[in-house]
Fold each of these.
Amino acid sequence: MGSIEEKRAALYQKLKQLRSLSHSSAVHKTSIIVDAAKYIEELKEKVERLHEDAASSREHTSLPMQVTVETLDKGFRINVFSEKDCPGLLVSILEAFEELGLDLRDANVSCSDKFHLEAIGEVVKRAVLKAIKNWTDNDNED
């Protein structure tokens, strides 16, 4: 009889631990298991998004640009720099800003032998990276 009681106690402890790990407030075994399954699915989705973000970051790091974003009190400062001249990149970036409905408060641009853009406003790094990717794709087609 002691063996059955030990098994029950072990099962109870495992269910208690599962309930805690899955942030469940359920009382019944079945509900705890269902909550845990839902929690596992949420974790799988988070892992998928992280993998997608990592893959996206790897794509963008292969671009011939350096992009930095700093948070300001009311918006962001974004810097885009390339060692080479990038005809059409400024237009591509400004189109991406417009597409996202972002307003620039101030911008400094140099497009001589190198490309440098410093923009201050409500800017999102992803928009700039998308613009650079679009520009790179278009540049490779030419």
Amino acid sequence: MGLFSKDVNRAYYVVVTRYYTLFVGSWNTAVCVNRFTAIIWPLKYSQFWTRPTTTIVTLLILVYASFFQGMFLQNACWCSTSTMECVEYQVFSTYVVAISVIVHALLGLFLIMGALGIARWNGSLASQNIETKLMLQTLATTALSLCVGSTKFISMQKFYDGEIELHLITAQLGDIVLGMYSYVVIGGLFLASTSFREAYVSFFRCDSTCRTRSAKHKITQDRKGSVMVF
């Protein structure tokens, strides 16, 4: 819209991407903890993950991302990339975020692989088909989160090495992988969980609409059939 300069727009993009990356890393770890408890303590899962507990965890995730972002915004270069000093600061902040995401992803992989190993040892995995699917979905999102952190880490390292072209390429690749995260989460849940599909349809108020369309289609078929019979 031309309200801000290219420099401010670029800095704003970095701020938003940085916050979302921090959010994705911590959120994915919380999901891994959730899946871990579902597999290891299935009978106590509902006691652990009550609505108040889930609300508190969500708030902690938001506070975690905001805390890091708040520290980054203390620097005068947070809204600028016009000088080399500010560029180096933005790169350094992204470097810290990348390390944070990698640590979260490794912790998530440890939890998921540990839960799968324990469940397989106990012989309880085969009887929990839906949990197996959800665990595989979480494993896929965790691996994607690790790719996000790794590409951003490599990108920032290439900047310090003076390889600017590779820095830009890997930075763009990291943003693409980060953008894919939400699609993998929603798509994986949609394929793995019947309850999620039902909730998704109900949320968008498609249940009554779909039933109405189905009923109309059935009536049309019946009318066609009656014409053909008589």
Amino acid sequence: MSSTSTQYPAFENASRIAHGQPQQVRPRPPFLRILQAAGAQGETFTLKEVMHYLGQYIMVRELYDKQEQHIVHCGGDPLRELMGLDSFSVTNPR
């Protein structure tokens, strides 16, 4: 298993496309489906793109806490299986 897969289990690998270009990651199929549900196209993304689509997914599905919007409640959503958590804070992403 690559060190990227160990650090980021939602990704198959990460590699630089060319010197000076942003690192591209290839999400594993469950995570890719979540990103695609938020409008992502393709199979490889920069980490900035991943965070954008993940944020879109959370907003569209209204998974955030209405009072404390940095808290995401994902119990009962496919995101729960991916994260392994019922809720998490976007200010402390692990």
Amino acid sequence: MMSEGLNLQSPPVKVLAAQLQQCYRDCDGLWLLARKEYGRPALAVPLVWMQGTILTVDQDGKAVKMQDESGSFTVQGADKVPKGRPCLSAGKYVMVMGLVLSCSPEPILRAVKMTALTDSVLHRNMWGLEVEDLHRNLP
């Protein structure tokens, strides 16, 4: 697992599924997010913040398939994390913080936290803009 030895004191990086699919590993095995389109250097993304709609939940609640505005991704370990409100059902819009396990062909995260955001349309509507703003301004 990539979590051993990582400093997870820094905040998670907000990303979309399509951005995470374009990540690559450096010589130390860390996932790096290329940000050339924003004129910024690559950014290590051991811990990410993603938002999306739950498509499916496996029978034991361990894995969740989600989709954001750019593509789909999988969240593992959903049964072992704190959840703000019950959120593990298809159709719910949720936030997930997770460790990046894989980026291609589809991102896979190990959940650290999940929270339902379904009650606020603002969260869904602003998410893409929040992510873009972050990458335009984060050095």
